[in-house]
Amino acid sequence: MCKIRTVWWLRHCLPALLHNSFFSGLCLCDSSSSNHHNSFSSSNSSISSDSVVVIIIVVVVVVVVVVVVVAAAVSAVVVVVVVGVVAAVVVVVVVVVVVVVVVVGLVVVVAVVVVVVFVVLLMGTVDGGRGKGRQRKSWLDNVKEWTKMTLPDLLIQANDRPAWRRTAASSALKSPRL
Predict the structure, then answer these.
(1) Distance between CA atoms of 64 and 171, rounded to whole angstroms?
(2) Please, which domain of life does this record's source organism belong to (predicted)?
(3) Would residue 67 count as lying in a domain?
(4) How many domains does the chain have?
(5) Neighbours of 68 (CB within 10 A)
(6) N or C terminus of the chain: which is more exposed, having fewer CB within 10 Å?
(7) How far is Cα 163 from Cα 126, in angstroms, rounded to an integer?
(8) Is residue 167 domain-resident?
(9) Is residue 9 part of a domain?
(10) Which domain holds residue 9?
(11) Distance, CA of 8 to CA of 24 (rounded, Å)
(12) Tens digit of pLDDT at every position of the chain (178 positions)
């Protein structure tokens, strides 16, 4: 029976394989290089140099294909991770921009409403009950008067009839004419 010994095979058969004289099968090279007897015939177990070249080429091609496939897989994973990170950053930036635009829009709307209400109150001033032919109050006088009013008074002032009519009606009730 043939015994395979790795160290012996590397020492005896591998050099013979490289020198194109490998004829004795799986475990022995030839009868001159070993004390073991060959259990295989030389015609059944001979390996030509062309077969060795084909085996080496196949091994090299398989190794190259495996390296290329692994490199492609790694690069695909890296691309997916990079694209994911970029997409996440873009989403965060878009959300921040939308929030800033909404907040700035709300601030602008509130400021416009406040300015419009203030201007309407200032421009809607009347002469304060002095009669139609008299001069109107200055805006500073109106601001001083409004600061003394409560919010319901201001709303009535802005939405109701002119103040000179209200004042005239209330003064008519307070002091009857002779």
Answers:
(1) 106
(2) Eukaryota
(3) no
(4) 2
(5) 10
(6) C
(7) 6
(8) yes
(9) yes
(10) 1-47
(11) 14
(12) 445 555 565 566 666 666 554 444 444 444 444 444 444 444 444 566 677 778 888 999 999 999 999 999 999 999 999 999 999 999 999 999 999 999 999 999 999 988 888 777 666 554 444 445 455 666 667 666 766 766 666 666 655 555 555 555 555 555 555 5
